Amino acid sequence: MAYQKCTCGNDTFRAISRPELYMSGVMLNLDGEIDYKKIEPFRTSRTTQPEEWDLVCENCEVIYHIVDGKLTPVECGVTSKDIIVKIHTGNEWYNDTADYLVATLDAPLIARIKKLAKAARDLNVYEISEFKHIGDFKCVDYDTEDTDNGKEILKDFEGRMECCSLDVSPDDFCMSGFYKHSDIRWETEPVSLVDLDSPEPIDEREVEVGPQS
């Protein structure tokens, strides 16, 4: 069986458009059908129409649409990504906590995250982490009745963090660390790698609820 190839010569891809079908090692045959034979030898007869899937080359990370059964490269053009993601704190009794991490991911950082994700897939490991401080820490300003287009108003977090890291898995990434001079760990909500190829910002702020007594 012959398979369609990326411009780099690789013929294996990841399916990314439907999360419940996200998988590595898929191949697109010349008839425009997704073939699982390479990764699921016990299901050698299974093929399926790709519908609206996108595929990502497992070697060079180029994204493709499937148009009329053919691979068509997508020019993303994403050079930066603005994110506001929730922070989860490991101890619910710890009071001086941040609520959100606000950051702009530039093109080199986006490329670095994708490279680490590929390494995690190639090594078949759960996660790869490196020490890196990204963005600013914010708290919800409950003392104002103003909103930011219906979203919560944020103010600077007055505490400090240490041991900050970028944690990248094959499918997503997050940031984590510890509150300064404590053993209380924090971690952001994961961000899907698929979202890095969209210029749309990520904003996880809640609807502003007004001042609290």
Short description:
8% of the residues lie in helices and 37% in strands.
SSE string, helices as H and strands as E: EEEEEEEEEHEEEEEEEE
Content-based structural category = mainly beta
**Inertia-based shape:** elongated
Q: Tell me roughly what share of residues is in helical segments.
A: under 10%
Give an overview of the whole structure.
Strand 6 and strand 7 form a beta hairpin. The protein is elongated, with a radius of gyration of 21 Å. The chain is mainly beta and 213 residues long. Helix content is 8%, strand content 37%. Strands 8, 9, 10, 11, 12, 13, 14, 15, 16 and 17 form a 10-stranded mixed sheet that branches. The protein has a 7-stranded antiparallel sheet with strand order 4-3-2-1-5-6-7, with no helix packed on it. The protein is built from 1 helix and 17 strands. It starts with 12 loop residues before the first strand and ends in a 10-residue tail after the last strand. It folds into 2 domains: 61 residues, no CATH class; 124 residues, no CATH class.
